[in-house]
# Entry
Amino acid sequence: MHYHDPDAERFASVNRDMLIAALRPCVAPTSLLTTEEELRPYECDGLSAYRERPLLVILPENESEVQRVMHVCHELNVPVVARGAGTGLSGGAMPHKHGVLLSLAKMKRILSIDPLARQAVVQPGVRNLAISEAAADYGLYYAPDPSSQIACSIGGNVAENSGGVHCLKYGLTVNNVLRLRVVSIKGELLEIGSAGADAPGFDLLALMIGSEGLLGVVTEVTVRLMPKPKKAQVILASFNDVGKAGDAVASILAAGIIPAGLEMMDKPMTAAVEPFVKAGYDLEAEAILLCESDGTDEEVAEDITAMCAVLEKCGASNMRVSQSEEERLRFWAGRKAAFPAIGRISPDYYCMDGTVPRKRLGEILKAIAEMEKKYGLRCANVFHAGDGNLHPLIMFDANVPGELERTEAFGAEILELSVKLGGSITGEHGVGIEKINAMCSQFDADSLESFHAIKAAFDPRGLLNPGKAVPTLHRCAEFGRMHVHAGELPHPDLPRF
Amino acid sequence: MNELIDNWRASIATASATHVPLRVRGGGSKDFYGEMPDSSHTAINTRGYRGVVEYEPSELYITARCGTPLTEIEATLAECGQMLAFEPPHFSTASDTGATVGGCIAAGLSGPRRVSAGAVRDFVLGARLLDGTGCLRTFGGQVMKNVAGFDVSRMLAGSLGTLGIITEVSLKTLPRPAQELTLCLEMDEAEAIAATNRWMAQALPLSATCWRADVLHVRLSGAPTAIQSARAIIGGEIVADDVVFWRDVREQRHAFFATPGDLWRVSVPALTSPKQLPGNALSEWFGAQRWLRDVADAAALRAHVIALGGHATLFRSADTTRVARFQPLAPALLTLHQRLKTAFDPYGVFNPGRMYPDF
# Structure
């Protein structure tokens, strides 16, 4: 479907021919794509339900070309949407119909790896997994491991503040990136963060990471590398009740253990993946937990013993500990194949990404089961349980009239409930265009106003990825879900003084 | 408690009308840090707005009001076997009323465990900010993973009260390590930096390092068996009063800090050769944090440190006017800082000049 953004029309006067003429000298001839068939592959990112065709696609090969492109777009008042590998699930890289799509795909060199300092300097188009592969020679790896890590780029990870299966112990992108080189909308170069422990002034690194292409274009990333753990082992535990599995998650953390990974799958999910990957899951269980420990042999042995004791006490009906690396990978294979497995049993699925406090996991699962009846759609659940981050996969058939709309309403209700339970509408996939309306539920007008003020500080003309990530107050008002806290209307006391 | 917020709102309104800015202050334990507070500005004391709002050990976070004493937070966590893993320095002396959690976030200073656990900003999950228009804004939350909206709450760490009054903060907590052991070894600074980084690359459980006068102290944290095997690799002698040693390093009560004169904090890439830096050093964080004494030429130090990819802070000095406390920002970054300041504090009422003279 084409996404309709009325605000997009403020850029309707952009002259495409003039823009192409101005951008041609900025890059090599093969780096400027303008024909319909060249543009088609760029119409959407991983959220393929939303599509838009950009005026053109430009693929700079280095930082100074990015600067020139940005300078031209700023001068001509043209929107710029940056794109990494296009694997994002929230439509953050969906093009602007009156704008330029800036692909960083040609900037894919690993510039340096310093094994002793445990840092790598890479260009934004480098794939997440390629960093770990290059660092493996030194016994090091890059910790954040989003499930798309084979394909997704580090620049995109920075834009989305990507997580992964191991972020409970090792953190998100924001905890693992040390320094960025960023080109501003005017084409100026900013150095943010440092190869040391910190930088003077405000922590702009925290602001840039997860900013979804609204503040600048990242041209170089310095990441922290970790020593590869010597050993990893995983416990596969079954529960005959979802609530009990949720309580076990809290009990492990309360016992002072931070597992390397702590994942949950419900019964519909194990039923979907087992025939596909034959991981050996307990198909009778209402929920299964995967609890991983990594570190030295001694650390892993201690953790596994301690976690088994907690799981047993919490009523696990069955427990298996991986006895080899091969078995560990098989236990994980089902978790990693969750999305494609659902793709096999349903024509379409919609992946949600809410976060709730861990103690509310059982509660939201029950509510989701009720919603399945309400919307007449099936839903299977996988969670990064240790982080309270849930990925309900709603199954539907886009060819059945009305199912997509029902799916979207189902998803929106899950997100609204996540916020009500003290969580967030997105744990790791970003807001993009997909959750732009849901933002109105999570944030009040005052907080949204601050976001707009920050955006204006970096990009006064609003040219970077317009219409994404932060809704206008006008949009929230139209959407009719402006978050009203404790019965107070937004701006009760305007003007303030 | 809400009356306090209302009072602060009134003070903000007065400050913007009269152009007499506000000086936001917790316990005053870090008055020495940054550019000197201007005594002609109206003081806002946050200590009355205190108390732990929420703490659930299994959720791994604590939410507290800004004036809550840091000691109270630490004691609350310790009862449940948890800690603030960034090990914040209090810097409290007889002349102040003790560090507050709000001041801890605003100062953004981390202690010895920063090398393994992360800095203050890595543990900030959410915050409430009373901004320059008197509006109380909420950012982030209590959950570990939350990528909705800009990550303003982390940015408040180290903002020195220049963006508003941080009224409430949610921090990620972690379990205390099962065991800790400190070893000391004799080696020069360059060897110490190389050795500690090598040990880290081997995944040994180092949680703090401190080198001074050819003695390296290394703290190990974690499972007892892992500590024993690391000890066999590292060697050295076991330090008996290790808790006191690390407290003294963190709180700058170590003898190195007692000598008179300017104290510089130099943040550089960890492997920077000690020969590249002037003065007399105590180094921490595998070499990423160097404390320097006897620096003759501040301007030369700053120019040199920038070339090394770092920055230098005049951390403690009796002289309040001579040298800027923080490394000056590149022009494009300074402009951005000024714009961000205006976004939160359009009338310039909060701690002007505390970080940089420009805002």
